[in-house]
Specification:
two-stranded antiparallel sheet; about 230 residues
Length: about 230
C-alpha cells in the first residue's frame, strides 16, 4: 500500500492539455531562436510593436521600473522566498519544491538559450529570450497550478486559470522590458514560451520523484513490519 502525503503539483486533469501547450511553446522558442540567431536589431514584428511601447515617460516609466525590479536578483529572491514560505504554510511541500526547481530550470534555460542564439541589443547584451519575462511567467504558472489544485478546478477552468495567470504576468513583465528598451518584443515572446515549456515538464518531474520517494518509504516500512 502506498500513500500520497501531498497532492500533485500538476493536476491530472491538466496533464494532457499542458503537455500539448508545452510542446507548442517549445516549438515556438526554437523557431524564434533560429529566426533571430545572431541578430543585433529588431525584426519585422518588433518594428510594428516596439515604437508604440518603448520610451515611456513618467509615471509609466516608474511603473515599468518597479515591475522590472521583480525580475532582478533581489526581487526574484524575495518572491521565491515568499512563495516557498507560503507553500509550506499551506502544507504544499511539492509546490515549494516546484517554485525553486521550476524557477531555477526556467532561468537556467533562458541563460543557455541566450548564449546559443546570440541575439543582442544595445551592443553586446544578449537578449533572446527575456529572462525577466520567463521568470514572471514561471512563478505565475506555479501559483496558478497551486490554486487549481486547492480549488479543485476541472480541466477547462483549470486550464483557463493557468493560461490567464501566465498571460497577465508575462504581459506585465514583457511590457516593462520593451518599455525600458531592455528587450525586443520577440525576446519577450520567447521568454513567455520558455516558461510555458519548462514549468509543466518540471511539475511532472517533481510529482514523479515525490511519488517514487513515497513508494520507497512505504516499501521500507512494510519490510520493517515483517
Amino acid at each position: 500500500m502506498t500513500g500520497r502525503p501531498a497532492p500533485a503539483v500538476l493536476p491530472p486533469s491538466l496533464r494532457v492539455r499542458l503537455g500539448l501547450i508545452a510542446a507548442l511553446a517549445t516549438l515556438a522558442v526554437i523557431v524564434l531562436g533560429v529566426l533571430y540567431a545572431g541578430h543585433s536589431r529588431p525584426g519585422k514584428v518588433d518594428g510594428w510593436i516596439q515604437p508604440a511601447v518603448e520610451g515611456v515617460r513618467p509615471p509609466w516609466r516608474n511603473v515599468a521600473l518597479a515591475t522590472d525590479f521583480w525580475g532582478e536578483p533581489a526581487g526574484v529572491a524575495m518572491l521565491v522566498v515568499a512563495g516557498v514560505a507560503g507553500c509550506l504554510l499551506l502544507r504544499r511541500p511539492r509546490a515549494a519544491v516546484l517554485i525553486v526547481a521550476g524557477v531555477g530550470m526556467t532561468v537556467a534555460t533562458t541563460t543557455l538559450l541566450k548564449s546559443l542564439v546570440g541575439r543582442t541589443i544595445h551592443g553586446d547584451n544578449l537578449s533572446y529570450p527575456s529572462g525577466h519575462t520567463a521568470f514572471a511567467t514561471a512563478l505565475a504558472l506555479v501559483v496558478a497550478l497551486l490554486a487549481t489544485g486547492r480549488l479543485g478546478l476541472g480541466r477547462t477552468a483549470g486550464t483557463l486559470l493557468v493560461l490567464a495567470a501566465a498571460l497577465v504576468a508575462g504581459a506585465a513583465m514583457g511590457w516593462a522590458q520593451v518599455a525600458l528598451g531592455a528587450h525586443y518584443p520577440t525576446d519577450v515572446l520567447g521568454g513567455w514560451c520558455t516558461a510555458l515549456a519548462v514549468i509543466p515538464a518540471t511539475a511532472w518531474l517533481v510529482d514523479r520523484m515525490a511519488d517514487w520517494l513515497v513508494d520507497r518509504m512505504a516499501d521500507a516500512a512494510r519490510r520493517e513490519r515483517r
